[in-house]
């Protein structure tokens, strides 16, 4: 679906040239759901814009949906859906009217465009708002209209740029359900950008981490997390004074490292935290240490980002 | 999708999105009528000043007012495309396969239609106040104002795309508005102007259209000024379309 080689995008700002994207290679196979994850200003949106023909690359090539973005932008546009960060619909138009018109822009005949409009209004829960002015929709509804507009011509590949930014938690969850639906029921390849870790984790089968205009990691969320050295195990003791004894027991587990004790809690990292746990509980039982609780936490994508860059993604929020 | 269908679709979308608010239409129709009522008598009172007809000035004044109306209806539509860019609707359009030229022409066509309708309305309203009717001349006058509306509209869109923010756009409008209106000769004859001001009026496309309109309003369709008015408006429009299409291909949304 996508084959990009050495994509570069430079911007001239006053007297200096800024390289927003510095030599990115991306391959996306049909049927994948890929998230570009990175902090604001990392170059994810710029990369996306080059793939959707909105921005010509300064260097490199990209074949999207079978066509070169530079040589045949029209062919690429016919085959992809793009849902941008803003409101794609025009104030003053009714929901139904706008959706139908968008279909006409892709060359659908009148009847097909009306049929597709009705179908999408149902699928994106906008049927009740069909004759409302788009300016009077809620944030979540307007976003769903944008998604509907991006799907009107049945593209095989859809791009979403920061799709949930500015939505309330409920609308956000709803939109993420629709993104999953694209993949599962509509068989559409999806590429999205996000700076929310949980979002990438929740919908993407593959995450491409972008920082300072370069790809710094690429894999399934699980593969990326395995780059972090193990799960985080937390043991909470009934009596704070037994913390040191508990830490001593923990240190005898061969795979345990980064052991930390504070208050009534002992924390450490280990591979396969879930498998280590039964053995640990027995070992703590021996000297008669009483547990109040245990917790095994798989690494998060934030841990991944921290490991890769030394910075937390949450820093800029 | 061919050029005609895409232009028609963009045009329909434009019209539909604005048809439910009649204010722009009211505003641009009221303005020429107010000029006619308030400024018309002053012009009439000037009597036989150089460049003015010695008798009734209606036939001289109405065409000028129509050019001013055409200007105020079509020259500001570039701010609309700036709002679309700000909101994200322009980005949405740019990822569709619709031809960039069709995006401009569809938008411009809306003001072309509005100007044609308004011109007929103003003509009809002024007949009872002494406007003599020259059917052929009037028909050609409507067509010419439509061409001018298209030209001004497309130049305005090009400016809206080239200038990155609303302040810059309205700043440009403020800089150009007074010189364009004054040197067009629409309100007072340029025959009164000193040489340097007259020279300035020669590079104002509106001045040529005003002169052409005045010939058309006395039924003188064969006057070379008419052909010149068409030529200037048309050339201005083609230049605007070229610059505008280029701007739309390069615009960063």
UniProtKB/TrEMBL annotation, chain A:
<protein>
    <submittedName>
        <fullName>ABC transporter</fullName>
    </submittedName>
</protein>
<keyword id="KW-0067">ATP-binding</keyword>
<dbReference type="GO" id="GO:0016887">
    <property type="term" value="F:ATP hydrolysis activity"/>
</dbReference>
<dbReference type="GO" id="GO:1900753">
    <property type="term" value="P:doxorubicin transport"/>
</dbReference>
<keyword id="KW-0813">Transport</keyword>
<dbReference type="InterPro" id="IPR017871">
    <property type="entry name" value="ABC_transporter-like_CS"/>
</dbReference>
<dbReference type="Pfam" id="PF00005">
    <property type="entry name" value="ABC_tran"/>
</dbReference>
<dbReference type="GO" id="GO:0005524">
    <property type="term" value="F:ATP binding"/>
</dbReference>
<dbReference type="InterPro" id="IPR005894">
    <property type="entry name" value="DrrA"/>
</dbReference>
<dbReference type="Pfam" id="PF13732">
    <property type="entry name" value="DrrA1-3_C"/>
</dbReference>
<dbReference type="InterPro" id="IPR027417">
    <property type="entry name" value="P-loop_NTPase"/>
</dbReference>
<dbReference type="GO" id="GO:0005886">
    <property type="term" value="C:plasma membrane"/>
</dbReference>
<dbReference type="InterPro" id="IPR025302">
    <property type="entry name" value="DrrA1/2-like_C"/>
</dbReference>
<comment type="similarity">
    <text>Belongs to the ABC transporter superfamily. Drug exporter-1 (DrugE1) (TC 3.A.1.105) family.</text>
</comment>
<dbReference type="InterPro" id="IPR003593">
    <property type="entry name" value="AAA+_ATPase"/>
</dbReference>
<dbReference type="InterPro" id="IPR003439">
    <property type="entry name" value="ABC_transporter-like_ATP-bd"/>
</dbReference>
<feature type="domain" description="ABC transporter">
    <location>
        <begin position="2"/>
        <end position="237"/>
    </location>
</feature>
<dbReference type="GO" id="GO:0043215">
    <property type="term" value="P:daunorubicin transport"/>
</dbReference>
<keyword id="KW-0547">Nucleotide-binding</keyword>
Automatic annotation (TrEMBL), chain B:
<keyword id="KW-1003">Cell membrane</keyword>
<protein>
    <recommendedName>
        <fullName>Transport permease protein</fullName>
    </recommendedName>
</protein>
<feature type="transmembrane region" description="Helical">
    <location>
        <begin position="133"/>
        <end position="155"/>
    </location>
</feature>
<dbReference type="InterPro" id="IPR013525">
    <property type="entry name" value="ABC2_TM"/>
</dbReference>
<feature type="transmembrane region" description="Helical">
    <location>
        <begin position="101"/>
        <end position="127"/>
    </location>
</feature>
<keyword id="KW-0812">Transmembrane</keyword>
<dbReference type="InterPro" id="IPR047817">
    <property type="entry name" value="ABC2_TM_bact-type"/>
</dbReference>
<comment type="similarity">
    <text>Belongs to the ABC-2 integral membrane protein family.</text>
</comment>
<dbReference type="InterPro" id="IPR051784">
    <property type="entry name" value="Nod_factor_ABC_transporter"/>
</dbReference>
<feature type="transmembrane region" description="Helical">
    <location>
        <begin position="29"/>
        <end position="48"/>
    </location>
</feature>
<feature type="transmembrane region" description="Helical">
    <location>
        <begin position="167"/>
        <end position="188"/>
    </location>
</feature>
<feature type="transmembrane region" description="Helical">
    <location>
        <begin position="60"/>
        <end position="81"/>
    </location>
</feature>
<dbReference type="Pfam" id="PF01061">
    <property type="entry name" value="ABC2_membrane"/>
</dbReference>
<feature type="transmembrane region" description="Helical">
    <location>
        <begin position="225"/>
        <end position="248"/>
    </location>
</feature>
<dbReference type="GO" id="GO:0043190">
    <property type="term" value="C:ATP-binding cassette (ABC) transporter complex"/>
</dbReference>
<dbReference type="GO" id="GO:0140359">
    <property type="term" value="F:ABC-type transporter activity"/>
</dbReference>
<keyword id="KW-0813">Transport</keyword>
<keyword id="KW-1133">Transmembrane helix</keyword>
<keyword id="KW-0472">Membrane</keyword>
<dbReference type="GO" id="GO:0046677">
    <property type="term" value="P:response to antibiotic"/>
</dbReference>
<dbReference type="InterPro" id="IPR000412">
    <property type="entry name" value="ABC_2_transport"/>
</dbReference>
<keyword id="KW-0046">Antibiotic resistance</keyword>
């Amino acid at each position: 679906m996508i084959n990009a080689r050495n994509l570069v995008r430079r911007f001239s700002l006053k007297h200096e040239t800024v390289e927003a994207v510095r030599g990115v290679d991306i391959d996306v196979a049909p049927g994948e759901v890929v998230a570009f994850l990175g902090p604001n200003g990392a170059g994810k949106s710029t990369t996306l814009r080059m793939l959707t023909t909105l921005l010509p690359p300064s260097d490199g090539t990209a074949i999207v949906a079978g066509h070169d973005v530079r040589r045949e932008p029209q062919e690429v546009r016919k085959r992809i859906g793009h849902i941008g960060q803003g409101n794609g619909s025009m104030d003053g138009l009714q929901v139904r009217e706008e959706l139908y018109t968008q279909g006409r822009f892709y060359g659908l005949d009148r009847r097909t465009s009306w049929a597709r409009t009705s179908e999408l209004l149902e699928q994106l829960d906008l049927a009740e708002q069909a004759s409302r002015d788009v300016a009077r929709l809620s944030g979540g509804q307007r976003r769903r209209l944008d998604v509907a507009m991006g799907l009107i011509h049945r593209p095989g590949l859809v791009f979403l740029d920061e799709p949930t930014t500015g939505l309330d938690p409920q609308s956000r969850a709803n939109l993420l359900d629709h993104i999953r639906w694209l993949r599962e029921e509509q068989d559409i390849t999806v590429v999205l950008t996000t700076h929310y870790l949980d979002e990438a984790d929740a919908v993407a089968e593959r995450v491409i981490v972008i920082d300072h205009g370069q790809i710094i990691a690429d894999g399934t969320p699980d593969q990326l997390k395995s780059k972090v050295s193990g799960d985080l195990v937390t043991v909470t003791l009934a009596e704070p004074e037994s913390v040191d004894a508990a830490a001593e027991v923990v240190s005898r587990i061969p795979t345990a490292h980064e052991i930390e004790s504070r208050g009534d809690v002992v924390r450490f990292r280990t591979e396969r935290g879930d498998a280590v746990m039964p053995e640990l509980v027995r070992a703590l039982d021996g000297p008669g240490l009483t547990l109040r609780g245990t917790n095994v936490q798989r690494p998060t994508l934030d841990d991944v980002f921290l490991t890769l860059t030394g910075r937390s993604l949450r820093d800029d929020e | 999708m061919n050029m005609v269908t895409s232009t028609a679709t963009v045009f329909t979308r434009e019209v539909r999105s604005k048809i439910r608010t009649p204010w722009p239409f009211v505003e641009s129709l009221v303005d020429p009528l107010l000029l006619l009522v308030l400024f018309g008598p002053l012009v009439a009172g000037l009597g036989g000043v150089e460049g003015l007809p010695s008798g009734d000035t209606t036939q001289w004044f109405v065409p000028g007012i129509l050019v001013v109306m055409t200007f105020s209806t079509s020259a500001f539509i570039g701010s609309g495309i700036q709002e679309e860019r700000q909101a994200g609707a322009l980005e949405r359009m740019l990822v569709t396969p619709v031809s960039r030229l069709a995006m401009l022409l569809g938008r411009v066509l809306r003001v072309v239609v509005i100007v044609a309708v308004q011109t007929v309305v103003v003509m009809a309203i002024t007949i009872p106040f002494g406007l003599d009717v020259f059917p052929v001349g009037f028909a050609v006058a409507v067509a010419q104002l439509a061409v001018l509306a298209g030209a001004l509209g497309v130049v305005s869109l090009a400016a809206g795309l080239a200038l990155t923010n609303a302040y810059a756009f309205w700043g440009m409008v403020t800089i150009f508005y007074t010189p364009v209106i004054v040197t067009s000769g629409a309100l007072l004859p340029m025959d009164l102007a000193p040489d340097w001001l007259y020279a300035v009026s020669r590079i104002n496309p509106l001045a040529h259209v005003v002169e052409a309109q005045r010939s058309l309003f006395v039924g003188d369709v064969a006057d070379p000024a008419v052909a010149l008015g068409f030529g200037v408006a048309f050339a201005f429009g083609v230049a605007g379309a070229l610059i505008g299409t280029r701007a739309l291909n390069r615009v960063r949304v």
